[in-house]
């Protein structure tokens, strides 16, 4: 069943489609950006056209295809849709339980049947749509230990986009394409495989699906980023150990993650992020309470882990943690933690400097109805995390730096009653947009923000075209429905949204909201743009070009988010204690703890340390760097001889003078009258003068 309605509502043109069951997945063919299931963001070299072909799959396993306002159902039952990360115009439709599967290389104009019978766990290659990995279950003898669960899978690969398959390694637990195959020195077909051989688990990599190089014996799992390869192994004390090394596999040299709390076991690891070379790890030290973790951060070369957060909230179902990076910004994170006292209540905190310092989120003073928000105690803003929500409730996109949306509450802890909040300055200040929970989406590089209620039936949306300063309400449908999600194409360059949900009859509904007529022009002049400054982070500040709130124009579709990175004036936090110095208090003076000797070449200057090393790229401000100091002057042999001669000469002169003076004094003692006569003579003269006066 497919019913289409065209509903013009003032500035918005709405197209509604009613289907037999709600939608479970949407894919944008020809998208400008692909977000893979391996957490990669891959730009495409096509896809800037306004209209995108949309595929969606329903809970009844039917797939529909749309180009503009024409919707077609594809025959068959399906369980998954995947877009090729190598070419977003290539879509794979995987059939359910032996049903036919298809591939289209032109966004649905033509389809070709592919072979997926008995295969599962498809891995698409980001360099070529032709390369694929998949698994098949092995039939194994009960006593064959290498084929035990979960290693009873055989790996296959395809070189022609899943038309045919060739066998590779047996007894596999997991496999993936190398994440740095875009490196010109890495073969496009390089795979990483975790399998069992001779009753030993091994992590290997192969460039031809047959021959391989062993990375580690005893591996239990692995995770690769573009910077690091992480490998999990069992430890001798009953927990686990995490090893890591360079992501370029030829250069991989295993190192053990060494945490400062060595007395505690590690029972689970979650790699949260690897920004700027720093490794963010969530680690559970409690076997019975693996939902409570500590967060550790390394330095910029992946070493020297320090604990920065305790009692972080973790899901025991999938290992996800309430720890979110705000996209588009540098080193800004939001996390949820359990209350230290009962480890039941949860609260939300934010870090603007990469996790080194955490603080409460500043609550707005007024609610969305203009009332003062009253709350006893130290109230702050809290957000529901991904561990207890079916969708991400803190939402940001790379293309709109500083715009943050979230569902939460003001109080001491996370509460059941939720409202919707927004920040336009990267989480520094917040406003309550509306009461209740909403779904939301951002387009036009932040120039258009749309929301809809998801906690009760609705037929309207609210939207803002001035970064949340004002909001307008529009009716989009003539009946009420429950909104499940609101989406747009990943690049944010299209000017329409899709909102989907279900009717009161349990049917699925999807509506296309076209915003292309709200402005009549594209922004062209610098007068349309302003500069928004982020906080100083790690000694530098990023300045972003952003459309002015009152500019009535669309951002150009080919726009690249422009930014300027400038150094900030140095503060005490930009300096750490140098080797041989330590601070008794955090942020206190660095004092010597050992004898510090400075090499000084006589006659020249040297830079004498003040006990600090600059940690960031800050400039000016507080200067605790080395001070140029003059070295004591040294003397060579010739200079020493010259000084001795001069000093000797002076001594001789002094002695001669001394002898001469002694002789004079001796002669005076032998003829005392002469001296007295002369003195009296002067006195007599003086007396005469006095008398004359």
From TrEMBL:
Recorded superkingdom: Eukaryota
Biological processes per GO annotation: post-Golgi vesicle-mediated transport
An example Gene Ontology CC term for this record: Golgi apparatus
Record InterPro entries: Sortilin_C, Sortilin_N, VPS10, VPS10-sortilin
Keywords: Glycoprotein, Membrane, Repeat, Signal, Transmembrane, Transmembrane helix
Cited PANTHER family: SORTILIN RELATED, SORTILIN-RELATED RECEPTOR
Stated name of the protein: VPS10 domain-containing protein
Protein's organism: Paramecium primaurelia
């Amino acid at each position: 069943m497919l019913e289409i309605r065209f509903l013009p509502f003032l500035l918005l043109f709405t197209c509604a489609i009613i289907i037999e069951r709600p939608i479970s997945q949407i894919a944008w063919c020809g998208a400008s950006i692909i977000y893979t299931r391996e957490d990669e963001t891959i730009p495409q070299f096509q896809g800037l056209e306004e209209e995108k072909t949309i595929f969606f799959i329903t809970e009844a396993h039917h797939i529909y295809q749309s180009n503009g306002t024409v919707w077609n159902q594809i025959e068959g039952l399906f369980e998954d849709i995947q877009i090729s990360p190598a070419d977003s115009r290539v879509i794979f439709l995987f059939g359910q339980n032996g049903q036919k599967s298809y591939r289209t290389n032109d966004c649905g104009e033509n389809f070709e049947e592919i072979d997926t019978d008995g295969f599962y766990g498809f891995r698409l290659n980001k360099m070529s749509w032709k390369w694929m990995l998949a698994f098949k279950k092995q039939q194994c003898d009960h006593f064959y230990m290498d084929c035990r669960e979960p290693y009873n899978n055989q790996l296959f690969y395809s070189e022609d986009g899943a038309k045919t398959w060739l066998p590779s390694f047996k007894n596999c637990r997991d496999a993936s394409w190398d994440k740095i195959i875009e490196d010109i020195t890495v073969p496009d077909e390089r795979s990483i495989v975790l399998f069992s051989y001779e009753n030993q688990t091994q992590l290997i990599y192969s460039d031809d699906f047959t021959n391989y190089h062993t990375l580690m014996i005893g591996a239990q799992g692995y995770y690769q980023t573009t910077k690091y390869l992480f490998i999990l192994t069992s430890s001798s004390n009953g927990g686990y150990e995490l090893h890591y090394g360079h992501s370029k596999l030829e250069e991989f040299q295993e190192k053990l993650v060494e945490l400062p709390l060595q007395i505690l076991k590690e029972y689970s690891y979650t790699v949260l992020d690897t920004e700027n070379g720093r490794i963010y790890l969530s680690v559970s030290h409690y076997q019975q309470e693996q939902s409570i973790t500590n967060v550790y951060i390394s330095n910029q070369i992946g070493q020297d882990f320090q604990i920065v957060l305790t009692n972080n909230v973790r899901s025991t179902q999938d290992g996800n943690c309430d720890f979110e990076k705000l996209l588009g910004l540098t080193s800004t994170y939001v996390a949820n933690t359990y209350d230290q006292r009962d480890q039941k209540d949860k609260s939300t905190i934010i870090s603007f400097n990469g996790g080194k310092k955490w603080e409460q989120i500043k609550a707005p003073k007024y609610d969305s109805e203009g009332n003062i928000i009253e709350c006893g105690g130290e109230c702050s803003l809290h957000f529901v995390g991904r561990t207890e929500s079916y969708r991400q409730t803190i939402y940001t996109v790379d293309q709109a730096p500083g715009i943050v949306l979230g569902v939460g509450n003001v109080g001491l802890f996370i509460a059941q009653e939720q409202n919707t909040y927004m920040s336009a300055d990267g989480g520094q200040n917040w406003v309550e947009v509306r009461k209740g929970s909403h779904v939301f989406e951002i387009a036009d590089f932040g120039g258009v923000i749309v929301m809809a209620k998801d906690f009760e039936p609705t037929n309207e949306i609210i939207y803002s075209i001035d970064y949340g300063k004002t909001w307008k309400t529009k009716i989009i449908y003539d009946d009420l429905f429950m909104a499940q999600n609101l989406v747009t194409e990943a690049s944010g360059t299209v000017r329409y949204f899709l909102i989907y949900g279900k009717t009161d009859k349990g049917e699925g509904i999807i509506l296309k909201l076209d915003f292309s007529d709200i402005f009549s022009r594209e922004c062209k002049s610098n007068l349309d743009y302003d500069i928004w400054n982020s906080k100083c982070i790690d000694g530098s500040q990023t300045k972003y070009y952003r459309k002015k709130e009152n500019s009535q124009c669309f951002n150009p579709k080919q726009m690249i988010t422009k930014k300027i990175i400038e150094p900030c004036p140095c503060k005490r936090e930009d300096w750490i204690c140098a080797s041989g110095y330590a601070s008794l208090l955090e942020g206190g003076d660095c004092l010597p703890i050992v004898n510090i000797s400075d090499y000084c070449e006589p006659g020249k200057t040297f830079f004498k340390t003040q006990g600090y090393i600059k940690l960031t790229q800050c400039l000016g401000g507080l200067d605790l760097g080395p001070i140029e100091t003059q070295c004591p002057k040294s003397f060579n042999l010739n200079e020493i001889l010259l000084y001795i001669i001069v000093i000797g000469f002076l001594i001789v002169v002094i002695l001669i003078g001394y002898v001469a003076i002694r002789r004079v004094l001796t002669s005076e003692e032998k003829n005392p009258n002469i001296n007295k006569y002369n003195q009296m003579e002067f006195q007599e003269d003086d007396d005469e003068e006095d008398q004359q006066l």
